[in-house]
Design brief:
1 helix; two-stranded antiparallel sheet; alpha+beta; about 15% helix
């Protein structure tokens, strides 16, 4: 599953990587994120209200998962993690 992608429509600034942008953003709003229409109702004006709305309307979706180490190491010697446990 991908949540964001690097932009391919404009070059990166010298010394920087390409911009990473949410896959949920319509490309026509890449350079003016504030112009995109809000998917939220006008009464959802606090983070807590958004959270309660999401619990009410999307309670069957996974949220706040954890990945546990498998005990293995990758080629660089870093820990390998398993699938998310919800």
């Amino acid at each position: 599953m991908s949540y964001a992608s690097f932009r391919t429509d404009k070059p990166a600034s010298p010394g920087y990587s390409a911009e990473l942008i949410s896959d949920n953003i319509d490309p026509k709003f890449y350079d003016d994120l504030m112009a995109q229409p809000s998917p939220l109702d006008k009464d959802l004006d606090t983070l807590f209200k958004v959270y309660k709305n999401n619990v009410k309307n999307h309670s069957n979706m996974s949220f706040l998962g954890t990945r546990y180490p498998t005990g293995e190491k990758d080629a660089k010697g870093d820990a390998v993690f398993g699938e998310y446990k919800w």
